[in-house]
Amino acid sequence: MFSRNHRSRVTVARGSALEMEFKRGRFRLSLLCDPPEDTELQRKLDHEIRMREGACKLLAACSQREQALEATKSLLVCNSRILNYMGELQRRKEAQVLKKTGRRPSDSGPPTERSPCRGQICISDLRIPLMWKDTEYFKNKGDLHRWAVFLLLQIGEHIQDTEMILVDRTLTDISFQNNVLFAEAGPDFELRLELYGACVEEEGALAGAPKRLATKLSSSLGRSSGRRVRASLETAGGSGSSPILLPTPAVGGPRYHLLAHTTLTLAAVQDGFRTHDLTLATPEENPAWLPLYGSVCCRLVAQPLCMTQPAASGTLRVQQAGEPRDWVQVHGVLKGTNLFCYRQPEDTDTGDEPLFTIAINKETQVRAGELDQAAGWPFTLSISNRYGEEEVTHTLQAESRGALQSWMEALWQLFFDMSQWKQCCDEIMKIETPAPRKPPQVLAKQGSLYHEMVLSEPVAPGGPCEGLLLQDNAVSAEIRALLSSAYSDR
Fold first, then answer.
1. In the beta sheet, which residues pair with residue 181?
2. Among candidate residues 414, 315, 417, 332, the one with its CA nearest the CA of residue 366
């Protein structure tokens, strides 16, 4: 159910406790003013609703199989996003109302806990192996079935999809070329992968079905009766209506089924190719069943913001290890697993090498203190790292107590981020920017043997076979027509 006011639209579940409070008059709609993030989510919801309406109109107007498959895929993705956005809006609205009306000042809870930084999640090199029977793959026996498949990927309220791929028994695995990037996720993310598939009916088999049925009926019912039945079938087929004894095809277009799914977490992140188990969701009796091996191979990487964005910067005086009297004033930048020390702030923009670098990792020890004898710079920060049996300590001096506290807070936040993102903070994992989505490719039609014939060697211009090649191109249309009509009658 939708409750509307003059500024925003609020999604309230029918029969929920929040709806009952509205009916009792305890809450005002003014309490539900959308914060900026809710306004953005509402904009996305409105956009997906418009996209869904367009997909429905396109599906109703589709006259080709390829268009219907793409339109149905778009409709499924839009429906998934709409349901997800509505659920997220519902949770945010209820949390907002309970925060404003359910607590009194004396009911304040514990102080806010430290939150880990966000990061980017990228999954690429997606491959799903297939397990064909030896008679189908090696001996090439049985009907040639085809499937249109794609992947739906979700983290929180963000849903993305891959391109649609046509699969038959000539393929050993399903390979998706997309690099799917989720721009914002926490270390507790759950990446859900869902494989959807639709069985693609062959146009040649459907076109020849009335003729084959008429032939069988004419031979089994006798000469006179068979002629009448055959004439009625051909008349019905030629008039554009559905033939006798054949069901009227559904107007809703193709139907995608959930074939398999899995959920990947932070433990699956690795800067390399890795195999994960798939949970099969479609039984073999289902028309959309595909012989999956039961696993998915991919490269799942993560890039926390603490590894790519500076956490703190400012002026420091550094005492290098082993040189107690040598103090150097530098511009420090805490980024990733290093504290970079530059001569001046401009060097960070020009790309110059820092004077030296202090490593910051999970084993680093940090201590803060004050030196009475240090005039003007009494606030110190000691950073110790162990290299084998040797411990190396760098002592830093801050300009003021506030600057020292800022550096300590940045370091503690970095240590907390490292403890949450774990292996993702050992080194920066490379993420390739996803290429722009290409327009859907037209699925290749299943043609005759002529379409599958290829020349073993290219014909050189001016060679002895050039005249034969030109002659073959001149009669290619006639040969295709003859072969296609011959194989469609079989």
1. 122
2. 414
Q: SS3 helix, strand, coil % of the chain, rounded to 5?
A: 35, 25, 35
- How far out from the chain centre does Cα 40 lie? 20
Burial 389-400 (b: 16+ CB within 10 A, else e): eeeeebbbbbee
| Residue 321 pLDDT class (50, 70, 90 cuts) | low
Confirm if 122 and 179 have CB atoms less than 8 A apart: yes
Q: Residue 151 in contact with residue 193, Cβ under 8 Å?
A: yes
What are the tokens at 439? 């327009």
User: Could you tell me how many helices (H) and strands (E) the chain has, helices first?
Assistant: 11, 20
Query: In this structure, which amino acid lies at residue 392?
Result: V
Give the burial string for 169-181 (b: 16+ CB within 10 Å, else e). beeeebebebbbb
Q: Distance between CA atoms of 345 and 419, rounded to whole angstroms? A: 30
pLDDT of residue 172: 87
DSSP β-ladder status, 119-129 and 173-176: antiparallel
Cα–Cα distance for residue pair 130/341, rounded to 1 Å: 53
Distance CA 185, CA 181 (A): 10
The three-point CA angle 268-269-274 to 5° equals 65
Q: Are 172 and 406 in contact (CB under 8 A)?
A: no
> What is residue 3's predicted lDDT score, i.e. its pLDDT?
42
Segments in 239-354 forming alpha helices (H): 305-308, 347-350
**Is the CA virtual torsion 372, 378, 379, 384 positive or negative?**
negative
Question: At 233, which amino acid appears?
Answer: L
Residue 58 has pLDDT above 60, yes or no: yes
Sign of CA dihedral 213, 218, 220, 221: positive
Q: In this structure, what token pair is assigned to residue 232?
A: 């009625």
Instruction: Give the separation between CA 351 and CA 333, rounded to whole angstroms.
Output: 13
- Rg for the chain, CA atoms, rounded: 33
